[in-house]
Amino acid sequence: MGWFLLPFDNLLCMLLGISFTVWFTLLLVFIIVPAIFGVSFGIRRLYMKTLLKVFEWATLRIERGAKEKNHLIYKPYSNGIIAKEPTSLEEEIKEIRRSGSSRDLGATSQEFEMSDIFYFCRRGVESIMDDEVTKRFSAEELESWNLLTRSNYNFQHISLRLTVLWGLGVLVRYGFLLPLRVTLAFTGVSLLVILASIVGLLPNGRMKNFLSEKVHLMCYRICVRALTAIITYHDSENKPKNGGICVGQIHGGLMGVIQRAMVKACPHIWFERSEVKDRHLVAKRLSDHVEDKTKLPILIFPEGTCINNTSVMMFKKGSFEIGATVYPVAIKYDPRFADAFWNSSKFGMVNYLLRMMSSWAVVCSVWYLPPMSREEGEDAVHFANRVKAAIARQGGLVDLLWDGGLKRAKVKDTFKEEQQKLYSKMLVGTQEDRSRS
Amino acid sequence: MGSRASTLLREEEIEEIKKETGFSHSQITRLYSRFTSLDKGENGTLSREDFQRIPELAINPLGDRIINAFFPEGEDQVNFRGFMRTLAHFRPIEDNEKNKDPSGTEPLNSRNNKLLFAFRLYDLDRDDKISRDELLQVLRMMVGVNISDEQLGSIADRTIQEADQNGDNSISFSEFIKVLEKVDVEQKMSIRFLH
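ok -> structure tokens follow
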């Protein structure tokens, strides 16, 4: 039986060899070389348009299936499922008391009524049915299915044709796209490490800066293609000069190797986690860097944690205290192509990268907003809120006052105490009211 | 393949919940979605910690009492049926329900049941009476540290005096209903759905 397998073995080896060569050549020609020169063939946009057409067809089929069976289709509503009246504590309790009492209240009667609890009761149950915060820490719900099992929570009526399409999608994503992207990512990262180290050996000067910029850009472009990221830039005239650098935390392991290489080629600011706690040290480092006109601009993410991109949560005021000019950038991901939200409590970085690479694509829009600076007499918190509002408006996101840290931590008691204080004022009034009456 | 949420919530179950609570089909699926998103342990039931994770509920002065209302006597977990049964109290009263004949069982969102829900927030030991202590406890939760004990005590005494009719120094459910007979309970204890 051995003689039968030998020529078969050779054939297999040859086939593998040929396909590997073809594969690599295609990769080089269509992706790596354009990345080096910053040229784009427009393949990704074509891909995006095709996918959108497929999704539309899938939606129509689901709707038709639902009509046949006479069922209602589940439609997620991001604006909330219940009607919440924006009345304040005072107004509502006064209204309840007025409706329950036959006598004329006026301003003097401030006694407790048993119906006062209705307000707290209703507000509490409203927040159980639908609240503004907890839904920001899980993936955004899609209007229609995008053929990924991971985003399928309530889409029924999936017919045979749709299942076949889904199967094809799985084949394409895991059989073609994923290996392609992993290869690209590997190439991109190794090129970055090698070239950046080489550039780092050069003496400091204009040549070094020029080369390091080129090296960084090339490798980032390769990595961007590795994720099939389709980024649309708006208003680039507002971009601060010379791109940017990162403010981040020192990692160990694979990230550490990448970080160290990047540092050699171009100045970045890295912090130890323990140093981060010392806010003055951080602020001093940032302000020193900002004042040095020859240094590059800093890129900061002030929310402090990952949110699911349907809202903008509280900005930490630290970076707004330095007094530098802020160039706000709004980023909005298109959730139909991939769920870019990294739920760090649910899965780690490698898992997240794999999920990203086996989705359709990462599509996002980036808006550069005109620069903003702190006005006379404005404090850091107010300034931060102003920037937040501008970003939320541009990106079409909900502007929330809640802290993103609520993802992991409990809410502070001060908010409860505020409500209690408000209510107590209604019961007994303030010192001045009592002395007057 | 199918969908994660609906494989756990069958059509028959939705029909049963519809009959018991009066919610519509889409409202039930939407609230089920909400239930599963709160259920971090993914075991089909909610614990008290799952509720306390909602920031808006955690800062509500009566938050703990409201959470208590979801859990039947002595139990620590509430399943979806129990969840819906409690939420049903806040369904708005529709016009066609007002004139229903009283021979059937009272719907969960009737005026009486809404008042009973509020009564139970006061009456912690479920003895069908609001004692002075129980009233003081709720008052203390609502005002925090901003009012002295004596003042709070006098507020509680005055309230019991006004409501108490049979002289037992506590408020029974019928006395409670009498005090609140003019209040627009239907509107104040109802939550309207947008769709």
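The first helix of chain B runs from residue 4 to 8.
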